[in-house]
Amino acid sequence: MSEKYTWDRSGKADDDVQDLEQKLSVLRYDQPFKGQMQSPPRRSRLPLFAAAAAALLLVGGIAGLKLLGSKSPGKEGVAAREPRAGDTVARQVVACSEASSNAAGWMVTTLSGMPSCGERAMEAQAILPVGGLLETDDSSSAEVTVANIGRVVLSPNSRLTLETTGETEHRLQLDRGKLYAKIDAPPRLFLVETPSALAVDLGCEYSLEVQEQGITHLHVTMGYVSLEKDDNEVYVPAGYMSDALPGRGPIAPYADNASPSLREGLLQMVRAPLARQEALSVVLRETSSARDTLTLWHLLSRADDSECEAIVQRLGDIAGAVQEGSCGDTGMREAWREHLESLWNSAGAPTNGPMPSKGGKMKGKKDK
Amino acid sequence: MKNASDSALVEQALQGDQAAFGELYLRYRGAVHAIALARLSPHEAGDLVQDVFERALSRLRKLRKPSAFRSWLLMIARNGSIDYYRKRKPMGDNPELISQESPPHAEAMQIIETIRKFPDAYRETLIMRLVEGMTGPEIAERTGLRPESVRVNLHRGMKLLRDALGVEVEQ
After folding, report:
1. Tens digit of pLDDT per residue, chain A (368 long)?
2. pTM for this structure?
3. Which of B9, B29, B55, B64 best tests the A interface by mutation, with the highest count of A CBs <10 A?
């Protein structure tokens, strides 16, 4: 096989590849664009923000871009709020409007039972305004049309508030329960606050749940979601999950078919610092597949020297090679990512997306 | 205009420059089509290409960073192809429909069916290379993947394809 020819058609022609090119070129698409510009698309008049204060770089299908984050309040002109326990804080009731009205807000449709919108039982449909509360009991559920970019399904025993909606951001707060989101929009346009972390849509489909003790559980089924709390952020691709603990933020993502022991080990590493070594032993024991290397790679940025050695050894066992260097070294983690990417490719873990070079934004620090 | 950056073309398109958006279309048509063909029939893939660019055009003003056009467009394409696939099964699942194609198309679709069994990363890369005629450097440029990653995908994907076609030939 002529690799050069396969790569860029240089060098000696490869007969097999040429034969395939000839056979498959009949399917090439060469039609012109049939759409029309109706009028110049209006540009948003909101100011752009300096890179240092801006949100993460949009990465979409690019692997290996360095992602910078800023959690400063007031980002993008929207007043940031601390997550609040909606059950315990009194808030002014904002009424929902009838579906037939021209009121501003998002359309809510009853899927089962009788959800309440604006603290009143709703009919088949209603308009959820900014500040409005949507709540379901154990026999009800509802679907929310998120502007023109997707939908959210609110499961039974759940509660959310529409915080903001606009050209640059759509934000919900999930106080409790579970929602499923399917969003088709540029990255970081749709966000969901929970008590433990902020879930930032990067173009995807996922479920998000606030569990007992305030743990936020994320499962991504398409695309990517960024889960963030202060300086702690992880990028969770399709087929993976992550959890965020109150006050601690998210743990490393793990495959959605990983053992419960792996998840528990990752949680214990954060919850119980004194038992961290024991918890890491569990994690290392429970990681064995190509998909698990994604989890281990995220841990590199959170490991001290002794942990680093053990994690690197485990990665080497699975990946069949070892990259030298310390875990605090960005170059070392980048080298691991380059090496593991082909493993993730063959395992089916999507890498045509925002895989961070730092394994989340821990900068070599341990989980707190 | 052919040498203009994506950012510059997006900015011009936002001012109503149809030619600028047209250049973006020509630049990414192949990549979008490859993503679509990885799951859908040729007819559906062609429809999806038009849908994706129409959607991109209608939402262009929501793109906060013009330099992110590529990744944003390809995300729309992937999500769109998955949605299409879930609603309708591709022709590849219906041997009778394949047999109604002209012979060159039928043979090509059988190869595509083989490629569709491969992991996502190999699938799209192979289709970009073999169907759309893009070189490895062009694939890296259009997808944002590092050239090294594309090289690995092409090499391994091609090996899988040779092995798979070799097995079928023997049978």
Report:
1. 578 889 988 888 888 899 999 999 999 999 998 887 655 444 443 333 333 333 333 333 333 333 333 333 333 333 333 443 444 445 567 888 887 777 789 999 999 888 999 888 887 889 999 999 999 988 899 999 998 889 999 999 999 999 999 888 899 999 999 999 999 888 888 999 999 999 998 878 999 999 988 899 999 988 889 999 887 888 888 889 999 998 888 999 999 999 999 999 999 998 887 888 889 999 999 998 888 999 999 998 888 878 888 898 888 888 776 666 777 777 777 777 777 766 665 555 554 444 444 444 333 334 33
2. 0.51
3. B64
Q: Do B112 and A27 make contact, defined as CB atoms within 8 angstroms?
A: yes
Of B46, B71, B146, nearest to A64 by CB-CB distance is: B146
Contacts of B161 in chain A (CB under 8 A): 20
CA distance A1 to chain B (A): 9
Predicted ipTM of the assembly: 0.88
Q: How does B140-171 read in b/e, with b if 16+ C-beta sit within 10 Å?
A: bbbbbbeeebbbbbbbbbbebbeeebeeeeee
Which of B104, B161, B162 is the closest to A26 by Cβ? B104
